Structures
1.
Amino acid sequence: MSKFKKIKNGVVYSTNLNFQYETNEDQINFIDPKNQKLTIHIEKKNRNGKTATLIKGFIGSKEDLKNLCKLLQKKCSSGGTVKNNSIIIQGNLREKIIGILEKENYNCKRVGG
């Protein structure tokens, strides 16, 4: 029920044939990969001692973020997920991920040691 109200802004029914529903979903415009400023981190904390590579700073829709995650998983032959608007790839694959992102024309930066 809350999803319906969120999308339709509280309008349930209208008899006007020309009525257009107003939505309150935030539409994020597509940003060219060259204008993205992605940061690549290595994280060992909270992963049961295992290393993970974090990609932060992506601006775009959740669908685009998931597609980028799937691409990185496939190219790295590793597992991963999307969480808190960042991509988490299992393993210390920072150099490989930077190479893949540069081939896809993303602007990325190595962060940390």
2.
Amino acid sequence: MVYDKVILGDGCIFSRTCDILEEKRNASLPKILSGAIDQENVQIDASLHVSIIVNSALASELFLKAMIPPEKIPKNRNGHDLEYLFNLLDDDNRATIRSVVIHELQHIYPGYTNEQFSEALHNQRNAFINWRYFYEGNANPVGDFLLCFMRTIFAVAKTNSVPE
């Protein structure tokens, strides 16, 4: 169930930004691998990775918040902790998101498990904070989890009707 269409829409801004950055990064990968672009451009294109992580983490946060009943989000807990927010979802939404993410990541990582999902969510729970200040050295390596997590949450949110 989506409880806040405005927050959902705000998440779409960061999700779309992520898509654009990912397209640019992916378009440059063949050039980087072939050595067809200079070192400065390689660094610029590689730096898109940080922006993709920050935007996907923030979009995930907003999509989760849009699906949580407002009374379940404590007033003093408006942070960015994805694991905490995920656990505030109802059982059906949590199970659906978990199942879809695991299924999608099994295409990339055969044998991807429920335990790996839980570990990735735990390790990336503060990705927005850690990666927007990545230069402080607190950022954990990120694979495909955050993008898949973000897209899955949005897909689940879109299939749920907005209460009147």
